[in-house]
Amino acid sequence: MLHILLVEDNPADVLLVREGIRSSSVNADVVIAYDGEQALYFLTEFKFKPDFVILDLNLPKFNGFEILERYRVQDGPPVVVLSGSDNPWDRQRAMELGAREYVVKPIHLNDFIETVRGLLERWQNNRLGMAADAG
Fold first, then answer.
1. Does residue 132 sit within a domain?
2. SS3 label, residue 42
3. Is residue 135 part of a domain?
């Protein structure tokens, strides 16, 4: 099972991510943080240990860049930014702060769901590959 922390304040996007998970071949457990403060709590104090984090940039309390800045000093799961911004500066900054991947949210619903499905399957395969290398 893949354990995911989804950091997203938009309820519609949360539903689309969940639909992408349901449509994938990945068995996933998802915890949702609706703002940056909750995200940092889940990443630092909560007993849930995600395999990876899906992080929006535009969030209340702490934005995605602030989360990456505060979190990057810790040894934890990889962070994938899933953002509405296709600004090259945002992409570059997120990667400099430690994001492992930057994905722009598609506009069309089916494309959004398909993007999430592909993202999950890719990360599941990465996780399985790392486990095989360690064994």
1. no
2. helix
3. no
Domain that holds residue 8: 2-127
pTM value surpassing 0.70: yes
Q: What is the pLDDT of residue 70?
A: 86
Angle at 19 between CA 1 and CA 69, to 5 degrees: 70
Is 102 in contact with 91 (CB distance < 8 Å)?
Answer: yes
Return the structure tokens found at 36. Answer: 């940056």
Q: Which of 36-50, 56-70, 94-108 has the weakest average pLDDT?
A: 36-50
Torsional sign, CA 36, 122, 97, 105: negative
CATH code assigned at 45: 3.40.50.2300
| Helices within the chain (DSSP H only) | 11-23, 36-44, 64-71, 88-96, 109-134
Q: State the pLDDT at residue 112.
A: 92
Position 98 scores a pLDDT of 92
